[in-house]
Write a structure and sequence with these properties.
- The chain has helices at about 10-15, 20-25, 65-75, 95-100, 120-125, 140-150, 200-220, 220-225, and strands at about 1-5, 30-35, 50, 60, 80-90, 105-110, 130, 185, 190.
- By secondary structure, the protein is an alpha/beta fold.
- The chain binds adenine (ADE).
- The site of adenine (ADE) has 12 residues, from β5.
Length: about 230
């Protein structure tokens, strides 16, 4: 998979890709991530990427020209399956969206700033608009980092244990059950006995029940969705 990220603040975005699982995925050649600074596609001496809104109103708008130049340059090199715009008025990111995007070959992610981008960018280029939640960030970069993390860990081979993404919360529409590790007894705080029984069908049943109970208590909305 190849991800091209268009941003005015590449330095804000880079560190998540330089550590841990994302770094390993890149080093293993399972994903390529490229950053494109929008200011490199400007044509005036001030490298302007934004201007005031037509019709009046507070806040700057990202101009169509630098974004057009950048996206068009990328599209002339290869085909893209999805051109995503990070914006608080997009569809809210869910595990299902991350699953879909993880199957794509080439994607572009455009990070918005200020009031957002000129509507013509959205009309002409964008195939999908994604929000990471109902709050406003100062730019799309942190949202793009969240999206990339959620997507990249789903690419086969990225996680050490191939099954571990399958047992994540949300993968089956439920939250994950409680988990335990050594020691068996810590200060009298005990691990449920069943987990030592060796009875794997019973353990699996217990985990499913726990996942259901946890979901019912914390996120009943997830149960309504199915
Ligand atoms: N840009 C600003 N706020 C955002 C959000 N909630 N999700 C994605 N991109 C954003």
């Amino acid at each position: 998979m190849r991800i091209d990220i268009i941003t005015v603040l590449p330095e804000l975005l880079k560190s998540p890709f330089e550590a841990s699982i994302l770094k390993r995925a890149i080093e293993a050649g399972l994903v390529e991530v490229h950053f494109h600074n929008l200011r490199d596609y400007t044509s005036d001496r001030y490298k302007s990427i934004d201007d005031t809104q037509f019709g009046g109103g507070a806040g700057m708008v990202m101009m169509v020209e630098p974004i057009d130049k950048c996206i068009s340059a990328l599209k002339s090199e290869r085909d893209y399956d999805e051109i995503i715009y990070m914006t608080p008025d997009g569809e809210t990111l869910k595990q299902g969206i991350a699953n879909q995007i993880s199957l794509k070959e080439n994607i572009i992610i455009l990070c918005g700033h200020y009031k957002g981008v000129d509507q013509r960018v959205r009309d002409q280029f964008i195939t999908r608009e994604i929000s990471i939640g109902d709050y406003v960030l100062s730019g799309g970069e942190l949202g793009a980092a969240v999206l990339c993390d959620a997507v990249i860990r789903l690419i086969p081979g990225v996680l050490g244990n191939e099954t571990s993404a399958l047992t994540d919360s949300f993968q089956d529409g439920l939250l994950a059950p409680p988990i335990y590790t050594k020691p068996r007894d810590y200060k009298g705080w005990k691990v449920p006995e069943l987990l030592f029984s060796g009875n794997f069908p019973e353990i699996e049943k217990w985990r499913e029940e726990q996942a259901y109970l946890r979901t019912k208590e914390r996120r009943p909305d997830l149960l309504d969705e199915n």
